[in-house]
Amino acid sequence: MAMRQTPLTCSGHTRPVVDLAFSGITPYGYFLISACKDGKPMMRQGDTGDWIGTFLGHKGAVWGATLNTDATKAATAAADFTAKVWDAVSGDEVLSLAHKHIVKTVTFTQDSNCLLTGGNDKLLRIYDLSNPEAAPQEIAGHSSAIKKALWCNNDKQILSAADDKTIRLDLIKTVEAPAPINSASLHPEKDFFVAGGEDFKLYKFDYSTKEELESYKGHFGPVHCVRFSPDGELYASGSEDGTLRLWQTAVGKTYGLWKCVLPEDLGAENAEQLYTTTPEI
Amino acid sequence: MLFTEGNERLNMTTPVSVLRLPKGPDPNSRGFDPKSPRFIALCRTSIATSPASEADAEQLPREQHARSVLRESFLRCLLSMANKKIQFHMYERVTVEATFRASDIDVLNFQVSDLHTPIGVQKEALIRCQDVILFTFDA
Question: Is the dihedral of CA B32, B38, B40, B46 positive or negative?
């Protein structure tokens, strides 16, 4: 029997959500961090969307946010010309790295020892976090603002994307989407990928056949970022409407706050605890 | 008739049930609950014993005595500051003068009166302790 997707809406931000990232799987579950133009990145429990804390300190819009694999550290990139490193357990600011312009992207290496930043000053910088006073290694080459940079190939290479260049590193697949797409994420098992963009909808495609499998309305503004959780059971989307939504990969499965309920159970006593329509926030 | 945001195909399929909604932010705090299992397991809540003392059982009581003496003198200093004019030297070469009133329990904020700033005198203010490098006053 077909079930209808119930997205979980995480409110709290007051401006568009422009970036989000998941941590790896830790003994305490996995976590999610969201970057917002309101300057207050938030950390949430990854499988439920429950708010854990807000990182306070930036004085401008936060454009990028990331967690390290074990969710003990967070890093954020902001319009106040700084990238900050935070203790993701206590919420305290640990390091503030001054830049010469708006910082757009931050990412840790897998061992959390180095931090890569990039932004409107067109330089990539690599900071050694065990020696933060030392000047970062700088890599020039882009002729316009850097929007996103990632480590790849076991942290041996950097993949970066800037405003005027088309990045094609071994182009594997191209898929046509019904609307301009802002962000996409591949499922950990590489069965699907999800994408979201200017028409406010989320799309799910089969990775091998490129067929559009599902699409969902729900956001009230363009979708800026979408990411799969590390276990692939859900994906999170951040939007211009200031919310994050969590979507199930397998609709109807019991996971996190979603509960599989058979129709005959809906009349039973425990049904009062279950919401069968999406409550408005 | 259910009018909900959701699938493209609006038919009689049952929406997935949800136990509750995700919890939102607490308006009064920045979160990171110190009572959560993760915080207790991973976060240092105080400065740890120095490695030298951990190794040497005789040195430990001396270190603990020294720490309690320092803590007591810091607390007495805060007491003696009450209602006095204090000069706070802060980052970005900022120096301000104010009358100290009280500190909060974790020494995160100082409550002050008549804070003299380059743009005027603030009758009542909170100074964030992490912004202060040092403060001086006449005892």
Answer: negative
Alpha-carbon distance of A95 to B59, in angstroms, equals 33
Classify residue A210 as left (phi > 0), alpha (psi -120 to 50) or beta: left
Over the stretch A156-179, which tens digit does the pLDDT of each residue have? 888 888 776 556 455 567 788 888
Name chain A contacts of B32, Cβ cutoff 8 Å: 43, 52-53, 89-91
Tokens 């804390």 correspond to: A53
Q: A277 touching B, CB under 8 A? A: yes
Nearest to B133 by CA among B102, B101, B93: B93
**Sign, Cα dihedral of A189, A192, A198, A199:** negative
Report the distance separating Cα A226 and Cα A250, nearest Å.
17
CB contact under 8 A, B7 and A4: yes
- What is the 8-class DSSP label of residue B17? E
Report the residue of A1, A3, A4 to disrupt the B interface, i.e. the one with the largest count of B CBs within 10 Å.
A4
In the sheet that holds A137-139, the strands lie side by side as A103-108, A114-119, A124-128, A137-139
Q: Residue A245 has which token pair?
A: 């939504």
* Residues with Cβ within 8 Å of residue A141, at least 6 apart in sequence: A124
Bridge partners of B87, per DSSP, are B97, B136
**Assign residue A155 a region: left if phi > 0, alpha if psi is -120 to 50, beta otherwise?**
left
Tell me the per-residue pLDDT of A208-218, one tens digit each, with 9 for 90 and over.
888 999 999 99
pLDDT tens track for A187-244? 999 888 999 999 999 999 998 888 999 999 999 999 999 999 999 999 999 999 999 9
CA separation (Å) from B138 to A74, A114, B80, B84? Answer: 42, 46, 10, 8
Q: What are phi and psi of A110, to 5 degrees?
A: -65, -30
